[in-house]
Amino acid sequence: MSAVVIDISRPAGDRAVADVDARERFGSGYLKWLGLVLLGYAIGGRGFAYFGIPPLFVGEITLLVGLYAYLRCRHWSSVWEEPQFWPLIALCGWGLFRTLPYLGTYGIDAVRDAVVWGYSIYAFVIAALLMECPKRLTTFIGRYRKFVPYFLLLTPVVFSIYRLLGQTRPEWPWASVPVFQVKEGDVLVHLSGVLAFWVCGLAGRTSWRFVLILTINAAVMGVIDRAGMVALGLVFSMCLLFKPMHSVAVRMIGTVAICIAVLWVTDLRIPIVGGKGREVSFDQIVTNVGSVLGDSGSDGLDSTKEWRLDWWKDIVNYTVHGKYFWTGKGFGINIADDDGYQVLSDNSLRNPHDVHMTFLARSGVPGAALWALTQATWAIGMIAHFLRARFLRRDNWAALFFFLFCYWSALLLNGSFDVFIEGPPGGIWFWSVYGTGLGAMCIYRRDSDAFTLTVDDDSQPKLAAS
């Protein structure tokens, strides 16, 4: 199918044309930079988050530049006219209301806690940039295609170095944080996104070697982290429903079955350095699955589950059934210390291992309700657009909505069992996917009759004139 590149209409006059060119180059350049930042977070995790000049690190600098790019957008205020943005705007308003009173008392800690909703600025920025120039959506997809091999190949290297160095890991001079820090659950979330990207067909042909690398990465990371493995399992199940006999899914099933059979027959046990005593073995797989479905028989796994459940129960009691119903405890106080569930010697744990409970504890029932409404509105919109695109046989649009919905599901599920969306590595990724989805829905709703998302012969996505 031949593709015609979009020609963005421009006002007459040399100066006006130059202004538009400069604005477009800046917006497109910002999205390229954001793609590099997201790659850094995916590979380097919390360590990469401390890259910068204190107190401004890479995430905050990128956010400030994004605000500038947003304000330079033509008709930037039109984003506020879209009904899907209203719950998010209300969430930010309530979050600000529950943050401002604590700035004087807690200072930078209040700002740090508020990023759980504050990073949603990325969603506004990305959506506005995509709506201003729809062809940027296909550029974003192309950038993600380039992200995949770098992520798959570099992650096991960084993970191995991180584990082997142990206490000798190099740290940033201004923080007691390793230069790179790999969290297995975060990696599994991005593996879920890659899997959905392959299955939906936006990646074109997929080499079996990369499928094998993804499966091996998932096996090693899944032994250590249960929440991320559940997220990957959820996305894998969704992929099977979407395309039951897709070659990637079939190869993964075959590879996993063979590996489990080999571990069972040989009783092979491969210890993971720094893996809290866990190993790649058949018994460990059985234990992990049992800990997800019920009692595993492992004191370590079951105790962390009980610790979470007890903490969540207390939060419900002092909000839904208590004096913090309307307000929560605010953004600034260390919830782990105040609730008596601190488990780290440096008191660095600040939030319960569940983003929903974070909103409930910090912003009360109204904040939790707005958070739920924000996510439900987005999810329903994505499903509706997916179904509409499939009904109209706009398969690549349907594939895009499916991919974004899967990624959002994995991010949110991992955030339901870990402090993930409350920090830059998870929060910026989450709101970036959210904003891309908002932008894609707006483009589809406004311009689906004028433009068709196509994939040409070399599997490069394009937004072409219908």
Give an account of the 3D structure.
There is one protein chain. The protein has 466 residues and is mostly helical. It has one domain (14-465). The protein is 67% helix and 4% strand. It contains 17 helices and six strands. It has helices at residues 14-49, 58-72, 86-97, 103-106, 108-118, 121-132, 135-165, 184-200, 208-224, 226-242, 247-266, 282-293, 299-319, 335-339, 355-391, 395-415, 424-447, and strands at residues 52-53, 56-57, 270-271, 279-280, 451-455, 461-465. The strands form three sheets. It has a two-stranded antiparallel ribbon with strand order 1-2. It has a two-stranded antiparallel sheet with strand order 3-4. A hairpin with a 5-residue loop joins strand 5 (451-455) and strand 6 (461-465). Helix 2 crosses helix 6, helix 6 (121-132) runs parallel beside helix 17 and helix 10 (226-242) runs antiparallel to helix 16 (395-415). Residues 1-12 have low confidence and may be disordered.
Taken as a percent bin, the fraction of beta residues is under 5%
What radius of gyration results from the CA coordinates?
A: 22 Å
How far apart lie the N and C ends? 11 Å
What is the residue-averaged pLDDT? 86
Main sheet makeup: 2 strands, antiparallel
Number of helices: 17
Shape: globular
Share of residues in helices: 55-70%
The SSE order reads: HEEHHHHHHHHHHEEHHHHHHEE
Structural class estimated from helices and strands: mainly alpha
Counting DSSP E segments of at least 2 residues, the number of strands comes to 6
Please state how the strands of the largest beta sheet are arranged side by side: 1-2
Specify the oligomeric state.
Answer: single chain
Total tally of structural domains: 1
Uncertain segments: 1-12
